[in-house]
Specification:
Elements lengths: L5 H29 L5 E10 L5 E12 L3 E3 L1 H10 L3 H18 L5 E5 L9 H13 L6 E6 L7 H13 L3 E7 L5 H7 L4 E4 L1 H5 L4 H17 L2 E5 L4 H9 L4 E3 L25
Parallel strand pairs: 2-4, 4-5, 5-6, 6-7, 7-8, 8-9
Antiparallel strand pairs: 1-2, 1-9, 2-3
Bound molecules: ligand C2E and magnesium ion (MG) (3 copies).
Length: about 280
Amino acid sequence: RSKAQPEQRISFYEAAMDEAARERRAMGRDLGVALEERQFFLVYQVQKSARTRETTGYEVLLRWRHPQRGLISPATFIPIAEECGLISPIGDWVLEEACREAVAWGLGHKIAVNLSPLQLGDVSLVDKVRSVLLRTGLPPSRLELEVTESAIIGDKGRALHILRQIRAMGVMIAIDDFGTGYSSLETLRVFPFDKIKLDRSFVNELDGRQSKAFIRAIVALGKSLDVTILAEGAETEEQLHVLVAEGCDEVQGFLFGRPCPIENLQDRSFDLPALTA
Ligand code: C2E
Ligand code: MG
Ligand code: MG
Ligand code: MG
């Protein structure tokens, strides 16, 4: 039992919160120079057909190599970038760099780029996507954008308008981390989209009966909506086996590969690197 007086405990919490806030502010400041200092890079994780194990695409994941702290997870720094108003320039960079790399390496599959909900709050995204495709020469059918359910919690009308226009270009839309939001069914009802990415937590708990029931129901819903179902976070053959049996179309996870820089992709199904000389 703590002998500390209530006031002392409160001040302990305050100190800890101050410290956390200070950390976030420091990281926010460092994020401000990360782009110009070229501290970001991209890694790619393969996506496969569940039944045939053929490659169907690659998800693009952002990495930050901090000069003092080393590698920092996007789960840590993306929320800070969103708070500091830096997600727009960072998101623009990711989109451009991914399209550029995919073309430069002659990647023979589509790439899936993550969008922050904040990026869906700005109509200029439509022109950005269009001009990046023109500038890099990536065919629109080779690009997929991943958005989470939280993207429609804000200005729903604007997000829908943006997604419809992007989709009209021939770019695909995937709903990321599906099943973890507050309004999953609402999302499916109003969002224009091509793919559902079933959250990793369902795959994690496959031995539980409930998880399987959810997967089955979502797969059935996906089939009737005529969209692709991808299961995230498959780590074992046993999980893959269940996912195939439940009718998932595609799978992504450590079983098939960790995210890695484009030049190190194990899967050599893409063409030889384009000659740049
Ligand atoms: P996400 O979009 O759901 O990405 C999948 C995450 O799951 C990645 O983590 C990936 O490395 C991890 N993962 C893949 N397979 C497995 C597996 O079999 N087991 C386990 N335990 N994990 C697996 P990562 O790269 O740390 O990214 C975390 C999140 O950060 C992403 O979740 C996404 O929400 C966000 N993020 C990453 N890159 C970007 C970006 O360029 N822009 C934005 N806005 N968000 C990004
Ligand atoms: Mg994603
Ligand atoms: Mg996800
Ligand atoms: Mg996630």
